[in-house]
Amino acid sequence: MVITHAHWDHFLGMNEFNTTVIVNSLTHQKMDVWRKYSYDDRSLQEYVESNKITSQCMEIIQQEIPERDQFKLSSPDLVFEESLTVDLGNKVCILERIRSTHTDDSTIVYVPDDKTIFLGDSVYGTTTDAIFHYKASQLLPMIEDIQKYDANHFLLGHESICDLDEMNVFWNQLTSCNRAVKSISLDHAIECFEQNNLRSPQGDELFFLKAFVNDQILISK
Ligand SMILES: [Zn+2]
Ligand SMILES: [Zn+2]
Questions:
Q1: What separation in Å is there between the alpha carbon of 102 and the centre of ligand 1?
Q2: Secretion signal: which residues (predicted)?
């Protein structure tokens, strides 16, 4: 089992799997913090008050792990640096830590036989100081890191499976929105988008424009 990045919704259930757990070294480092946590109600409440975890995270832990006074997050079995090739006998899997707009510890898994790539949450944006944003600086490097794999099936952490056409639509939306954002003004970004594309932004595009504007806002602080 590969843990794609150190977000609690992706690893807190790891103890349930009686199998080899693989992570990259940065994910390992980030998960160490959670390995030192205690999970009784009082400790959880303290972590919420000191902003170490969110109250939503606490509630989900309380629901999902009813017996947790002795709960300790286990350690991974295999830690790699940049990349790792795993031969499962009948299937080769390539693991790589890629540049990502979501976290700096994002691992993807590529299965060449099936032209399938597991992206985890790597292509999503991120939240900093309660502001959701897309890291413009990581967008093109990330797309480059993913597009070098010859894949037809893309599995994202919180989406149903995408094919190559759907991914290309997604990349185009992200890159055209990124191109339109040059300042902390959403109005300017929308104007610029309309000039570049000869139409107004639709659906997700408005969401992405806001996220790239938010990135500019965070950078300017
Ligand atoms: Zn995540
Ligand atoms: Zn996630």
A1: 7
A2: none
